[in-house]
Amino acid sequence: MNDNAQARDGSSAIILTDVTKSFVIESQRVDALRGVNLRIDRGSCVSITGRSGAGKSTLLHIIGTLDRPSAGNVSIAGIEVSRMSDQATSKFRNRKLGFIFQSSNLLPEFSALENVMMPGVIAGMKGPVARARAGALLDSVGLGARVSHRPAELSGGEQQRVAIARALFMEPEVLLADEPTGNLDKNTSLAIQDLLLELAVVHKTTMILVTHDPLLAGRMPSRVIMEDGRVLSATGVSL
Fold it and tell me: Which of 13, 184, 194, 235 has the most beta carbons within 10 angstroms of its beta carbon?
């Protein structure tokens, strides 16, 4: 399929069909994903849980186009991204997907405002427009007074709020989070959980997060449990 792949299913944000992923480590083949099938509707909030090595992060990276499946198809927002060129995939990722990781991954030499602007800068957005949008997003996550602060001047919770604002900058179709509260204390974690769920509704964004936290997983309306590279059970999503 060419880079201008056409929409296949307008009601689903994400469709995975027989997705496998294998690695070779020290001459040994490791099957991280074994024929995963999922259909996640637009606007869903989904947790992915399971033991370490179950394939959770591998699945999230493939949905996020950070990695490609060994076999099978991945459709996001109606586009079969698993068959796009690297250049087209990078552009799609910038415009359609938002990412939040356990570590905020902020650029230390830039202010909170500049960090949030970064996806717009990459996309070629004009500076004044990007600054205005970044300022509004920082205000929406409670950091309107901290726009000029660099990451080292922010607490862990504040850094993660900046990362959330950055992930939402391009108004993504899908927001992907990998252990977004893993480095935070309990009270800060709860506040970030509340913020993520609120913003997913406000921005009408499909949210998928990997977590070991049973409390956070339980707050998500839809849940996927993985084991040994397969979907063991799913609630609120189709297999």
Answer: 13
